Amino acid sequence: MSGEPINVLVHTAPLRNSDGEIEKVIEMSIDITQLRKLQDKLSSVGLLIGSIAHGIKNLLNGLDGGIYLVNTGLKKNNHERIDKGWEIALRNVRRIRSMVMDILYYAKDREPNWEEISTFEMVEDVCKIMKERAENQDIDFSYELDGKVGDFEADKQAIRSMLLNLIENSIDACRIDKNKSEHKLVVRLKGDSSKIIFEIEDNGIGMDRETREKAFSLFFSSKGAGGTGLGLFIANKIAQAHGGSIAVTSEEGKGSHFVVELLRKRPDIKENEEKSESTSGGE
Ligand SMILES: Nc1ncnc2c1ncn2[C@@H]1O[C@H](COP(=O)(O)OP(=O)(O)O)[C@@H](O)[C@H]1O
Ligand SMILES: [Mg+2]
After folding, report:
1. Are residues 205 and 222 in the same domain?
2. Which comes out higher in pLDDT, residue 147 or 277?
């Protein structure tokens, strides 16, 4: 009686008299709402497993490729080959790791692990790691971080993984783009009394309208072998859990600009408590 639509399975059977004419019809309906929900869930789990298996297979192929270069480089004493192979191997190991982290986040659908975090230090730390990675791909990586934004209440691991995902996407977008001689990636951190704002801007491949619209959907990826389509979906979930959102402006061939706005304090717990009180009170 909650007003929610339900799914029912209806069986009917005719009851005939001795002349074979239908006199009555028996109808039996079964509420299969829960079953249908389970079915939907199973099919999305199936998709997830397919996407993971596909992703890991490709990343392992990449890893093999890197190891092959290192091996032949060692035999021929070719340092350039070793460096290149090692970089490829490392990239693929990192990808597997970040994919596993994403999947764990998705699978657990967990409540954020709230703590006061020092925003500047966390973002600087992420930027230092990513700067090296970007520069290995000849991308000019810079960051403009307001040192006075102060602390904010958040799930540190989730925010880190969200930033890493966004920056990684920008690095990919620059690497894929073959039409510019110089690539740039800028990370910014700002804040006001109620919000923390992260910006990630690149002059990579950009997105057309269709890609922009689908970018945050689960399993959407334009990268074929190189993508799983989990990153932005989960980044968006993380932003929402922090009372925030992610906005994107992007132009095909020009680049993309992601703006993440999060609440400085965790979204009002009182409001949720009140909600659950009023629903339990109404029953
Ligand atoms: N900075 C960016 N520049 C261009 N396209 C992007 C950018 N970030 C995300 N996208 C698009 O959004 C898609 C989904 O991103 P994501 O969910 O992280 O999955 P994945 O990186 O595995 O493809 C990407 O495949 C790409 O098409
Ligand atoms: Mg991604």
Report:
1. yes
2. 147
Backbone angles phi, psi at 35, to 5 degrees: -65, -40
45-82 burial, b at 16+ Cβ within 10 Å, e below that, comes to: eeebeebbeebbebbeebbeebeebbeebeeeeeeebb
Residues 195, 244, single domain; the answer is yes
Looking at the fold, whether 33 and 161 belong to one and the same domain comes out as no
Indicate if 37 and 120 belong to the same structural domain: no
Give a yes or no: residue 271 inside a domain.
no
Flag whether pLDDT at 283 surpasses 50. Answer: no
At 130-171, the pLDDT tens digits run 999 899 899 999 999 999 999 999 999 889 989 999 999 999
Which residue's CA lies nearest to atom 12 of ligand 1? 215
- The answer to whether residues 34 and 79 belong to one domain is yes
**Average pLDDT for the chain:** 88
Q: Which ligand sits closest to the CA of 216?
A: 1
Buried b (16+ CB within 10 A) or exposed e, 131-156: bebbeeeebebebebeeebeebbbbe
What number does the ligand 1 atom closest to the CA of 170 have?
1
